[in-house]
Each structure stands twice: as C-alpha cells, then as structure tokens.
C-alpha cells in the first residue's frame, strides 16, 4: 500500500515539476502571446471576387477637381483655376455628364471671382445644388502698403459675407440666404461639409465641432453639438436617404470614431452605429452599392451595413495598385463599378480609376510575396505599387499586423507578438519591415537571411557602392540582415560665437555652455528623459562595453549625466505658449537648435534659424571625439530565412533601394545609402536653372530675385503672440553640399533599434533621483546592478 | 510459495469478504472489460497530462538540442553548456536555491509550530485559524499592492524605521530584498501548511500519545519520538508543496519588480520568462530541463528521507 502511495505521490510531483518547466510563459502584461489572431493572420481566405483597376489620366484642366459628387448621370466637382496674368485663383462648380467613367460636356454651374468661393456644396437626389459661399471685400490694390494689407487680412473674417444658396436641377435659384449675422457669434466661421436631406433641409459642419441646421427655406434653424474634443470627419447621405455624420473624439484610449444619424427635428445626434471602419478617423463615406454606406480611407473601400452594424472590406487600394493616400474621391456606380479619383501631388497629375469586380479565379495569377509590417506606410506602399506595376511574375502584398482601427499601445504590442509568432512558427512573411522589431534578436535567432550573397551577385546593386558604415551597422553576427535605402543626418547647431567653429564636443562642454547662460534654454522642448535618451543613444559605448559585456553606470561620467539631465524640466512647460526658435536663438534665449537633415535643402533652412550669424554644427555631445552627427538608417527591410520566394523578395529589395522615388518623390525621405545615387541626388539638387519667360528673360519674384525651376515653397511659423517667421526654400549651393559632406564624414551610424529594455531600466531608476527620492549614488548603483544583470543574461 | 501460504491463511480469517470481492482472473474476459472501463475513466486525465505536460515537455527537449527554431540544426548539449556558463543563469540558480533553502524550511517549521499551538485548546482557536488562512483568499494583485505600500522606498516600514532614527532601506532594490520576499512567501503559505499539519496532528492515535504520557515522556520527547513519526508523510507533502510554491514566487516578484529586478531577486523563472520574450527558446528549454532534473532529484531525496523516518508507522 505504502509503495503504491509513494509512486502516486512521486508521479504527482513529477507531473507538477514538468508542468512548471514546460508551461508556456506569458507576455509582459500577462497576456498569452500565442494568440488566435496570430494564427488567423496565416490562414487567409481567398475572396470570391476581386476588384481590378483600369487607370486613365484626367486632362490637365481636370487635374484639380475636388469634392466630386455624383447625382444620377451627372458629376459635380469644385474646380480651382490659377490665372497667371493676375496672379490670382478662382473657383467654380462644374457639372459633367459622367458616362462610362468619363467626364464629358463640362458645364460651369457657378463661378466665383477673386474674392469669393464656395466653402462647401452638395447635391441632393433631385439634382438641387446647395452651397455655402463666402464673399470677401475687395483687396487693396497693387499700391497698398504693408499696413493696409495687414489691416485687410485682420478684418477679413469680420467683413466677409456668408450665404446659403439653393439652385434647382434646371439652374434656377430657389433661395439665397445671407446668414452672416449668425456667424458673428463665433470667433471664426468655417464650414467644409454640407449635406441636404430629402426634404431639402441642410446640415453644415461648423468649425469641426458642431453642425448647424437650415430649414427648407435656407434659414438657420438650430445647432447640434457633436464633438468637444475632436473633429467632424465626414457627413453624407445613406441609402435610406437619411443624413449621417462620422466624428472623431480623443480620449484615454486614443481617438475613437463614431458614426451617427443626424436628427433634424430633435436638433441632436440620433442613433449611433458600432464597428464603423475608421482607420484613425480618416475615412469618408457615401451611399453604398449593396449595403447602406460605402466608406473609404487610405487603406481600402468598405461596405457598411447599419442593420448588422458590421463592415465588409470590398477592396484594398494596394491590391489594386492604387496609392490610397492619393485618393481624393470615391464614386460608386450603378453597374457595380467603383470609380476613384487620385491626385499625385508630386507628379502633378490626376487619374480616374475604374475598379471592376471580377471573379478572383479569372484574374491573372502571379506568385505572391508577402511583406510583413506592423502598420502600412506611404513610402512602402508607393514602392510596392511601383514593383507590382512592373513585374509580371510576382506580386507583392502587405500584411499589416496592427488593427487599422485600433491604435492603442496594446494593439501595437499584440501586432509585434503576432508577427513574431508567425515568424517563429514558419509562417512569417517573405519580407520583414524591421522598423519596429528587435533586429538584433531576430538576427541572432537566424530569422533573417544573409543578404550579402545576394548583394554580391546582384547586377543592379554594387556592394562597394554603399556607405560602409551603413553596411556595418546592418551586419549582425557576420550576416547582412537588412539594407536600408536612405539615411538621415541628425545633429545640433549653435552660433559659432557660443561654441566655436569646431564640430563635436563633450557633455562637459555642453554643461559649461549652459552654465555660461543659466537663464537660457539649452534645447527647445528638452526634458530630463529626452536628454538622457539623447546622450545614451549617441554615447552608449561610454557606459557599455559590448565586447567585455560590462556596463559602467556607476561611473562618474554617468553620474554627471544624471546630474545634468536633472537640470531640465520633467515635462516641458508649454503654458508660456510656443516661442519661435529663430527669435529665441537670435538673442541667446535658446542656445542649440535640432537639425534633422534629410535633404540638401535642409541645410539652408537650418542656417536660416540663426538670422545670418555664423553657425557651427556642433553635434550631440559624445566622448568618442566624433563630430556628434548621427547617421540614421530610415527603412529596414530584411528577408525571412524561411521564405520560399527569396529571389523575388530580393528583387523587391533591389527596387526599394534603387528606387527613383527616393530621388524625385514627394515621399522620398533622406539621402540614398548608395554613393552613386547620393551623388545623383546631389547633382540634381545643384542643377537649378532660373525660370525664363517667352523672351528668354529671367522671371523674378516680388523682391526681384530670380525664380528657379523646381525650387520654391516654404513655410511660416506662427508664435503664441502672433509673431511670424517665414522661410522660402532657396536653390542648393555647393556650400550646402560641402556642409552635408562634412557632417557625413564624421557621422556615427546609430543603430536606431536601441535596446528598449535597457532604456526602460535607466529611465525607471533615474526617476527616483529626479524626484529627489534617492541619492545619486544609490540610483547609479541600482542602475548598474540591474543593467549588468540584463547584459549578463543576454550574453 | 510462502506468499501463497500467507494469503490462504488470510483468506481463512475473512472468507466471506473474499467471496464478495473476488478479483477477476488475469486475461479473463471480465478482467479485460474492467481494464477497458478503467482506461476510459483515466483517459481524460491521461490525455490532459499528455497534451499539457508530457508533449510540451518533449517539445522542450527537442528545442533544447537545436541551434534555433528557424534553421533547426542539432547541436547536442551545446545549449546546456551555454546556459550553465551564463552568469545571469547562475545568479538565478543561486537566488532560487537561497530563497528555497530559507523559505521552505521556515514555511514547514513555522506552520508546524502554529499547528501545534492551535492544537492546544487555546482561546480564539478558530479565529486564529481563519486569520492565518485569509492570505490565501487575497488576489496576487492586491498582495503586491499591499507589499508595495509597506516596503516601497517611501513606504510604511521605512517610515517606522526612520522614526527610530535609522536610515531608510530600499527594500526591493537592495540586498535586503530577499527578506521581504521570504516574509511575503511565509505570509501567503503558512495558513495552508498549518491546516495540513493540524489535520495530521489530529490523526495521530490518541492511545499512543496516552501510552507516551503514562511512560512519563515529556512533551518534547513525545514530539520527537512519537509525533514526528506520524507527521513524516505530511512533512514530506508540505515540503514538496512549499518547494513548488517557492519556485512560483516569481509571479509576486515579477509584479513587484518587472523583468529585470535587483539581482538578489532574480529567479530562475525570470531567466526563462526573459528568454521567452527574447525568442531564445533554446536557452529557455535547456534551463527548464536542468531545473526539472534538480526538482526531481530533490523530491527523490525527500522520499528517501521520509521513508527512513516514517517507515515504522506506515500502514
């Protein structure tokens, strides 16, 4: 009996100890990281129908169509025209016969002069056109002084007239109601959306927070408060002819979008509907084809059923080779087709896209290569579209792991966990966007393919053409695990009179500068945490000896850093309002300026902050003696070692790195990592020619300076008290390029995938010192112990 | 032959009983049917143990001999060697062993003392019993909150210490951290162990204790020569359960101090949990197997000790 009991107890103990050893550990928050959604990401259902896109260019005069509205067989659009002779623009509402995806027989319904335009308009089922116009007083003539012009602009809002006008389908004006007096109750009046119900009653969104209602005769009849802490996203009519609004509200969990019926009689919001696809509140909607509502955002088009309160994705823009961020209008057609208008600001062209529904089996099949990313980004999308349009064998698809309707931290962490699970279970995407992943760790686990053999064999890319430091930082455990396409230079700039003309300095030098100007702000927006992060990112080696696997957070140098960081506020005080950096720098109220240089043009922009004074790019303080400039790789794509389409994945990477988009594109961001392309960028930046008129005379601006081709634009910064600072981009000079090259020569490539865990330990413990709860030595000692444990564990 | 004789003798003493529960013959149809039925009853538990313990453990063994789950190259004992050489792992082993060596004997001895005190007919006996059992009902999150309030750098304990003129102690981030965790462990586990001992004490035959008293044995002699013999199997059980609980203290430490605590609080489960998060399944598996082997050895040793001490009172 005893023997049996003994074996039973032994068995139980064994089972318990095995269980203890073999149980699946949980995530940091205690959640089970092996979640169902990760599995679901792999088992994708092939849809029965697919939308196929047919592209056609819109003529140049239709290039700036906005707010296209379809009513029966007619399309209405707002059109802006620029008059070169008078240097002024005017707007009009144009009616087209919309036939088989073609805009025909344009007919100008309304035209506004220089001083008037339609703030918004809509067309109801019967073809009645409603619009809100703003008519401003005539501007002072050419000879007006600056003061007269300023006075004119300041009184513009007060002196403008606002009208609600209704015109029937035959072009007869039904009413024209001046409601200017109503707008005087607001500091500022603006409406960008109006919608009319079947009884001819109008809802107009005002200021993004409330909706004004107008009765059948165009008189203001009430006001509906919508969102105190957010904005009105979209207004429209559903298939049931009722008016709806979608609005965004910011709260603890981030932004939430609500889709609600508009109750005219009650002057309130009506029933709200759940599960409206919002994608960060950037969606718009119109009448549905089969369901009640058709809505679209930068990712795709969805149908929403109000009865079921659920959305169904009809198409993804990317699957149709359309850049979702360029979509300006979506028009459902009676024959089941969907039309979309896109505007490519970079290429200055517009397209009409006809999306036809086809059986998936009838669509030409190509091998699918999947890119896994946490969330989609425009740069990646545009490169995928470029690749897909030019490749007959492979098609790149994207799997974004983050829920596009949930941008919480939990959703982000879940996305990383799901992507990681997919990778480890062998179902990972072929190409990995490593921007948000622990690259070092994945590389050490053999997840990432060594790209060096591909690079060496490549006929398109040359290994020796890359900046060596970029390849070095992307090489982990002897394998080239990713290839960034571009990089950015990040540094600090200061007046030469304050820091001398030599680039690079130490923390002690920086502390001395601050001591010399105790009342001045060292860096705008700097907080204790920001200073710590900045110093640790650049000068990591001063505290961590990676070779010996040791750390020195109890050193005097680290204690000095803590002491220095403690001089900065815990949270930046914005209560004084935003002060313009150029004005602060001018009289030494601000000592340093951040300089993120991602194009040659940015050099002059940075220098302009210092009002013509001599500037030194002093850099981030560091103990290594470099120039303190950081070279940050921008895009990091690696190939999954388990991928069965490695060659196709490499072909895509070649496209990404060797992309023309980075040279020309609006979204091209940073300098190319390839020396040859970098040189091309430089040559292109320097190749500026002044514009000439038909007589060959150089065209000049109002100040008499020549106007250059492809150069222009600028920005204005407005301070808290209305003070302004303007900058107009100027042609790049050889001196600008020389500065970039000087920065580049001494720049340190920083692994942007800084160890989060180590950062967390330091920030957490440093807080006790910053709060005065612990002494400097105690805090340094605890950081040293915990960080040391971390390093030893990951040895 | 001897056994048969003994059995037949026993049968003659209780012939009627034997007839009623006559065991089926081996290989008989009834025996096979009985075996099948028993199998059916055991199947759910067996499948559960297979699915959640044995198969995962086999997977763990498989992972422990690979270089990584992607390339899956066989590397033999390389992972075990690496883990054994890892300084953090050795710190975790040392801390876990130190904690168990302090906490488990204290949990056994103190709960036994409490049980013996409550076994005496003292006033408010049942209230005391409830008082000691109450920590079992408190959720871990609440326990952690209470402990943070008490032992935080600005917590209640430091306030008291400072009233007496001493310097504050950063309980969770100093070498004294182990004391806090031992107290927490005892506070949480004493009640349960005490109940087990109280039940064991109540089951000691009263006539034996009476004989000891008549033989002029003093209470200490009665305890060591009589009671400990009858308590040995309970001591073994309580020790095993406390040992397992001591390994689970990670949960409380994790909630109090996160992934990378002050080194004195870094336990084996920290090492394994962090390795899981870092996708280092190889180190995790090797560490888990090494830990299991040590657990099995300790439990085996406890059985040997128990058999030696409790042998004469068994049955």
Task: Give structural notes.
The complex is a heterodimer of chains A (795) and B (315). With 795 residues, chain A is α+β, with helices and mostly antiparallel strands. Chain A has 23 helices and 41 strands. In chain A, strands 30, 31, 34, 35, 36, 38 and 41 form a seven-stranded mixed sheet that branches. In chain A, helix 22 (756-770) packs antiparallel against helix 23 (776-793). Chain A is globular and about 85 Å long. Chain A starts with a helix and ends with a helix. Chain B folds into two domains: 25-64, no CATH class; 82-313, MetI-like fold. Chain B contains 14 helices and no strands. In chain B, helix 5 crosses helix 9 (177-202). Chain B is flat. In chain B, 32% of the residues are buried. Chains A and B meet through helix 1, helix 22 and helix 23 of A and helix 3, helix 5, helix 11, helix 13 and helix 14 of B.
